[in-house]
Input
Amino acid sequence: ECNVKRQLGLISQSKLTREGKKQAKILSQKLKNIKLDYIFSSNLLRARQTAEIIAKSQGLKVMIKKELRERSYGKFNSKTEAQIDKAIGKKFTAYKKMPPEKKFKYKLVANMESEQESLKRFKKTLDQLVARHPKKRILIITHNNLIRNFLINIGVAKFNKINKYPIDTAN
Output
C-alpha cells in the first residue's frame, strides 16, 4: 500500500497489495527448488507478509529482525514526497537534486537515518546472521533502498547507475 501511495520511511502497518501478494507467490514458485534453512524478514508488515508466503511453501517459520527494516525518515515517516516538500520546501528540492553520493550521508531532519547509517545497520545484521548460521541457506526479506545501497557497497553497482536498473518488489 505505501509503495502505491509513494509514502517514505517506516510504515509498520502497510499491507501488501493484491499485486504484491501475486509477486510474492511468483517469487515463492521461483524459489521452490531451493531448500532454504532460514527466512529472516524486516519487521514491517509488507515484508513479513512476503516472507510468510515464501515460508509457507518452504515449511519454515519467519524470523523477524527489525534491523532489516527500511531506513527511518524520522518525523517524515509515512509522508509522501509532496507532504515533505510542503513542510520543508527548498531544502527538500535541494536534497532531490543532490548527487547520490552526497544523499547517501545526508539527513533531511535530525532524527532521520541516513542511507549510510541504514546500510551499516543492515551489514552488521547480515554479518551476525552468517556467523550464527554458517553453511546455511538464508533468505533475507528487506527493502529496496537497503538492497540498492548494499549492491553499491559490494561493488555490483555504482551510485550513478543503480536507479537505471529496477529492483521489482519480491525479486
Observations:
- The mean pLDDT is 87.
